[in-house]
Recover the amino acids of this structure.
């Protein structure tokens, strides 16, 4: 009986794995299609907004630049998510850049002495990452790097692939989600009176260039997408506040169980408290970039080069999980 169960669960696992591989192949091949579709959808939404809703907004001297700023952030962050390398292990070493789109660091940060591989680290304990060999591409990689099955390479602080998100573009990914939430809510909140006009409830003629049906479809899409992306953004922000990537959130769940089985508590050594974790992720606050850099689509260096990590005082590694108990990329696939 037990062997039958084991056999059938093995089959279920294999089936899942096959489906996952198929999903990977489809996602990998359809990546450019998804990207084009997203740009077309967001672009249509923006055109509809500026054609129908924006001319009727109050205080246009204030609301017009604000709306333009949201649109600018939306497109630029998406562009960066798709074009900035997430931090592949074989990328050439990252050097601090400057230019029109690069934010300037705080004066205090500019004065502080840069440590090897870590730009701003005053008041934070930074320790060198442990190295391990990837058993898929055989490269040596620092902790928090994982192998992306679609890119077939190891990525620094790998989060997920859709497109590939890691250390160097994760900030753009999260800000894109947040600006998408804001944009969808603006569309839904300021557009509802036009929905009634488009449906013919009032005897007002539809005087806009966009057809009413297109406006209605975009409105429904904004409402549904707005809710879905809110959940996604909230989940990511919670992960950031807990100092966990999507991969680590799953791993830590497993480590918690292992530690609990021994009567111990699992402690994530990257967790410096919600506020500090968020500050380090967005690289703002003391010794980072000014907070207002979040309002513009600037390029910002991460606080680390991915070879050193900020840790809780006194912890060299996670508490509650022993050496050799860490999950490998294969085990994470299940
Ligand atoms: Zn690898
Ligand atoms: Zn990838």
């Amino acid at each position: 009986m037990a062997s039958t169960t084991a056999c059938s669960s093995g089959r279920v696992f294999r089936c899942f794995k096959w489906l996952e591989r198929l999903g990977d192949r489809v996602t990998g091949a359809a990546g450019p299609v998804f990207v084009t579709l997203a740009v077309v959808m967001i672009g249509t939404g923006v055109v509809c907004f500026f054609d129908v809703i924006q001319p009727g907004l109050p205080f246009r001297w204030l609301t017009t630049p604000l709306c333009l700023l949201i649109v600018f952030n939306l497109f630029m962050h998406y562009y960066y998510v798709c074009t900035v390398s997430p931090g592949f292990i074989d990328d050439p070493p990252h050097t601090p850049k400057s230019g029109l789109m690069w934010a300037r660091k705080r004066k205090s940060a500019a004065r502080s002495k840069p440590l090897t591989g870590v730009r701003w680290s005053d008041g934070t304990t930074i320790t060198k990452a442990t190295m391990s060999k990837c058993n898929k591409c055989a490269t040596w990689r620092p902790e928090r790097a994982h192998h992306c099955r679609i890119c077939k390479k190891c990525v620094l602080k790998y989060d997920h692939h859709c497109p590939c998100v890691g250390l160097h573009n994760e900030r753009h990914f999260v800000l894109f989600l947040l600006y998408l939430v804001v944009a969808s809510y603006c569309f839904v909140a300021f557009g509802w009176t036009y929905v009634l006009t488009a449906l013919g409830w009032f005897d007002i003629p539809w005087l806009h260039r966009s057809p009413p049906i297109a406006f209605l479809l975009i409105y429904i899409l904004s409402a549904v997408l707005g809710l879905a992306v809110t959940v996604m953004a909230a989940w990511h922000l919670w992960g950031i506040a807990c100092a966990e990537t999507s991969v680590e959130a799953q791993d830590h769940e497993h480590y918690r169980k292992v530690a609990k089985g021994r009567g111990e508590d699992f402690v994530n050594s990257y967790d410096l408290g919600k506020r500090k974790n968020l500050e380090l992720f967005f690289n703002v606050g003391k010794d980072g970039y000014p907070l207002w850099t979040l309002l513009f689509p600037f390029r910002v260096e991460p606080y680390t080069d991915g070879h050193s990590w900020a840790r809780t005082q006194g912890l060299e590694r996670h508490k509650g999980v022993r050496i050799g108990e860490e999950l490998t990329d294969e085990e994470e696939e299940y």
Summary: The longest helix spans residues 2-53. The chain has eight helices and eight strands. The chain has a mean pLDDT of 84.
